[in-house]
Fold these 3 entries.
Entry 1:
Amino acid sequence: MEKSKHTVSAYAVQCGECLKWRLIPSEEEYEIIRQNFIEEPWFCHKKPNLSCDKPSDIEYDNSRVWTLDKPNIPKTPPGTKRLLNMRSDFSKMDVYYQMPNGKKIRSNVEAERFLEAFPEYKDIMSLADFSFTSPKIPEDMVPKEVEMKIASSKSKKMKVANS
């Protein structure tokens, strides 16, 4: 599947009380919130000088493509980078990690093999530190032109199958 050039341009979290979206200044801060979200839901009052009375930082609309992470994905291990690539058809995001030595891993099996091949990293990370769970792409966030391409492609496949 061809990859698109879409990248994460902002991190946001939804207040558990007022349901407004708030921008989070860094990927690291976002990962800390996401890692503990079930045990410690996020509320506006956790951010200095913010309350539910203030307007949203960002609106959930189709002016951008939103992806929604599952809660409690572990914080990225030290020295690694969790990378997300959205497929050009917006069907899903592929998740992989760039390891400290430059190697890319794409699954728990590859993470386990990496830790076995490079035991020096076992002191700073474990298999539990990796999650290859892909963020959800809400259907209402897929651009109309992509929806039309997908529908057209499915229609062609159905015609070929029925011939």
Note: The chain has a mean pLDDT of 86.
Entry 2:
Amino acid sequence: MPKNIGFLICLLIMALDITAGILGIEAEVAQNKACLSNFKLKLLFQHFDNNNPELFRQQVKHLRLWIFECREPSHKAFNLGLAAAVLLALAHVIANLLGGCVCFWSREDMAKASANRQLAVFSLIFAWITLAVGFSLLIIGTMANSKSRKSCGIAHHRFFSVGGIICFIHGLFTVAYYVSATASAREEKLAGHGGHA
């Protein structure tokens, strides 16, 4: 395999994670814009239509009281959040498939392992943790903006933006995993060839 292909794979992984992070933050912006425009609509109707409370209730699309809110979902936020979650998962799958399987079976294996192998295992663990947290937050935000979720409940603010930031962190751990896993595989291959010579 050419040496430049590893650099291109790292760029691909980072590009996917950065794009996922940006889409997650953009989904938060789209959700907030929808809430803000609905809040302005509420104030407008409250100001001009105090005589007709039924019309006011029908027109209010977003109402928040402490940590509870009633609002209509944002279709744009749903699409952006779903795209961010898919890109995050795709970056993780690519890194894990191309990086290979790196694990320890015992403490002795960990003690004997090279620094690259140890870094690969710890990066893989943190990549999985950031994937679980980031993916969960993006999916929670996405489901809160599903068309079938026109209901009241606990406010779902900041799920998209925090999930987007975690996508950036995931990119760092995933690239660290890929680089250290391929370096570890190269070391083992050279050690194997050296032992047979």
Note: The first strand starts at residue 62 and ends at 65.
Entry 3:
Amino acid sequence: MTTVCHRPEGLEQLEAQTNFTKRELQVLYRGFKNECPSGVVNEETFKQIYAQFFPHGDASMYAHYLFNAFDTAQNGSVKFEDFVMALSILLRGTVHEKLRWTFNLYDINKDGYINKEEMMDIVKAIYDMMGKYTYPVLKEDAPRQHVEVFFQTLAATQPSTAMPADFLAPKKMDKNKDGVVTLDEFIESCQEDDNIMRSLQLFENVM
């Protein structure tokens, strides 16, 4: 059976579409091809790669949501172009671009809103990914409490063990109390929260 290999668009085009230099794109492409020789990664492979970064937890559900955010065409595969466009936003994008991307990650059913069920799924996935060695030890009902905080009250800052966790404790995101958080509410609330703004800056000097 023949394996179909995907060749990415020209690096010049990707350089124009992203915030990376041609040299950086070449380095990223070599790493991507090393992990995914076919030039395309499916969800199962993505989960296996992601799991290596969280050996003490179960990262499979969070990797599933993350994969869907990378898979902009929703066709079950992530090409190098998809990967590098997302990475460009997360590492080099404006605050507004980063927050829009994060909102899209949390908006699981892509209806333009984050509801409590979606946030509960995301929070639980993050807690599972952190694993049993998280300090302080998390209680069974911690995810649900965190979701209530997300929608209603000012939360204490969580330990900065992963960037997404810092997005789960903003000040009263559901401003009009309609049970869902819109993109505008999300962006406004995040920009008012110093912890979230700091977490966005952590990734700016990764490369």
Note: The chain has a mean pLDDT of 79.
